[in-house]
Amino acid sequence: MMAMMWVGTVIWLGILVVLAVAVSIWFRHVQSWRQAPDDPLAILELRLARGEISLEEYQAIRRHLETH
């Protein structure tokens, strides 16, 4: 009987930990989304850092932004 109580407690604690981690990840995602930069060059650097564009694309877009 005592073992069943321990198993139940461990399961509930596991569920709480998983929920806490999920909320933490979600909160970080929302925070990063809200703090998106408005400067086009900052956005371009962020896209390069995330690997969304190549260095060649970065340089071409940067030249275009600087001339306009």
Oligomer: single chain
Number of discrete helical segments: 3
Biggest sheet character: none
Strand content: under 5%
Domains, number = 2
Question: Given the C-alpha coordinates, what overall shape results?
Answer: rod-shaped
Q: Can you tell me the residue ranges where pLDDT is under 50 for at least 5 consecutive residues?
A: none
Strand and helix layout:
Blueprint: H1 2-34, H2 40-50, H3 55-67
Helix pairs in contact: 2-3
Account of the 3D structure:
The chain is mainly alpha-helical and 68 residues long. The protein folds into 2 domains: 1-35; 38-68, no CATH class. It contains 3 helices and no strands. The protein has helices at residues 2-34, 40-50, 55-67. Helix 2 runs antiparallel to helix 3 (55-67). The longest helix is centred in the N-terminal third of the chain and has 33 residues, at 2-34. It is rod-shaped, with a radius of gyration of 23 Å. The protein starts with a helix and ends with a helix. The model has no long low-confidence stretch (mean pLDDT 89).
